[in-house]
Write a structure and sequence with these properties.
Elements lengths: L4 H23 L5 H11 L14 H14 L3 H22 L3 E4 L2 E4 L4 H24 L4 E7 L2 E8 L5 E2 L2 E7 H4 L6 E6 L4 E14 L2 E11 L6 E4 L8
Parallel strand pairs: 4-10, 6-9
Antiparallel strand pairs: 1-2, 3-4, 3-8, 5-6, 6-10, 7-8, 8-9
C-alpha cells in the first residue's frame, strides 16, 4: 500500500481543526487562533506514532493525556465529546474518499483526487467562517441567575476569568453575600491595576442557571461592580 504522507498529514490536520471548531460550538467556548494552531500541531503529532511499533490504542491514550494537559479537570467532558466529533468527521471523510482507509484513528491517503480535496476545503472554509462569525458576535457580558447560601443574585460570565485552584475553576462573590465564612486558603489574583490577595472559601452548593454544582471554590472580592463573577470553565464551559 502506497501512502501519501504529506497529504495524510495535511488531511488529518484539517480534521483536527474541524473537530475543535465544532467543539467550540457545542460547548460554547472561545478558542483563539493561537490555541487552535497549538491543538492541531500537538494532536496531529500522533500521526508519527503510526511508524512506531506501539500497542493498539496508544494514539487514544496520547489524545487523552493531551486533553488532560489542556483542560485539566474538565477532561471528562472535553475528551469524549472530542472523540465523538473527530471519529464522526473521520468516518464521513473516509466515506467521501474511497482511496483512503482508517488505521488506529488516523486517515491514511492511498491516492490523490483533487475533487475530494476541494470538498474538504469547502467544508473547512464554511466552518471557519461560521466559527469566526460566532466569535465576533458572541455575547461576552452575559448574566445568569445564581443562588447560594440563601442569597440570590446575577452572575457575570467572565471569559477572561482563568483562575483555578488545584485545577478547579474559581468564581468570585461579593463579600456582602459571603456572611460568616471559613477561609481555606489565600490566593493572588491580577486585577486591571494591581495584584490582590483574597480569601478563598468552599461553597457546598451553588445553583447557576438552574444547574446545581457542589463544592465550588469562591474568592471573596470587595468590588461593587458585580455581585458574582463566574468562571466559564464551570460545567466544562457550558455556561
Amino acid at each position: 500500500m502506497n501512502v501519501y504522507i504529506e497529504i495524510t498529514y495535511f488531511m488529518n490536520a484539517l480534521l483536527i481543526l474541524l473537530s475543535f471548531e465544532i467543539l467550540s460550538f457545542l460547548l460554547n467556548i472561545r478558542i483563539t487562533k493561537k490555541r487552535l494552531c497549538l491543538y492541531v500541531l500537538t494532536y496531529n503529532i500522533s500521526f508519527v506514532f503510526l511508524f512506531i511499533d506501539l500497542f493498539t490504542g496508544f494514539i487514544l491514550l496520547y489524545d487523552f493525556i493531551l486533553t488532560f494537559f489542556y483542560f485539566k479537570r474538565s477532561v471528562y467532558i472535553y475528551y469524549p465529546i472530542y472523540l465523538f466529533i473527530y471519529f464522526s468527521i473521520l468516518s464521513f471523510v473516509q466515506w467521501l474518499l474511497p482511496s483512503s482507509i482508517i488505521f488506529q484513528g488516523v486517515l491514511l491517503m492511498e491516492g490523490y483526487h483533487i475533487r475530494y480535496i476541494m470538498i474538504i476545503a469547502v467544508l473547512v472554509i464554511l466552518i471557519s467562517y461560521f466559527y469566526i462569525d460566532l466569535c465576533r458576535h458572541r455575547i461576552h457580558q452575559q448574566m445568569v441567575k445564581v443562588c447560594f447560601q440563601g442569597h440570590q443574585c446575577y452572575g457575570f460570565i467572565d471569559n477572561g476569568n482563568q483562575v483555578t485552584y488545584h485545577g478547579y475553576p474559581v468564581i468570585f462573590i461579593n463579600q456582602r453575600f459571603a456572611g460568616d465564612y471559613t477561609v481555606i486558603d489565600n490566593i493572588w489574583i491580577e486585577t486591571a491595576s494591581q495584584q490582590e490577595k483574597i480569601d478563598l472559601i468552599l461553597l457546598p452548593d451553588i445553583t447557576i442557571h438552574h444547574q446545581t454544582l457542589h463544592d465550588v471554590y469562591a474568592g471573596i472580592i470587595s468590588s461593587n461592580q458585580y455581585d458574582c463573577i463566574l468562571n466559564q470553565q464551570l460545567m466544562g464551559g457550558l455556561l
